[in-house]
Amino acid sequence: MKITSQWLEKRCFVAANEHGNSIVMDGTPASEGLKRGASPMEVLLMGAAGCSSIDVIGALQEQQQDVLDCITTVEGERAETSPRYFTQIHFHFKVVGRNLQPELVAKAVQESADKYCSACATLGKAAKMSYSHEIVIG
């Protein structure tokens, strides 16, 4: 895996992977005006949300669950002083579907947290991780 980050202006960068997919990251404080992208720490949480969500959806699809949507909210708390690493991260999965089996949803979330999500395993080395979920009948 290889990522390249290139400076655009001020505190704004564009990062790209080897396949040409890119995102804009902006470290400009909100008090200084318009931000052109998410901060790098926000992107870190976005990656973890995506990684874990892929696991959860994949597991539920393998179990023939009729999932209509999965909305994952991730909240992180950071240390007060530099380096301002994450100290706590909470994932909440809102799984929308028809005839979902609650035990399979719970198992998918737990297995992502404990076994499959590489991003969570990495972040869990520094931060206390927690997970919750809810099921919405769609």
From TrEMBL:
Domain of life of the organism encoding this protein: Bacteria
Pfam families: OsmC
Entry-linked PANTHER family: PROTEIN YHFA
Stated name of the protein: OsmC-like protein
Annotated organism of origin: Kingella negevensis
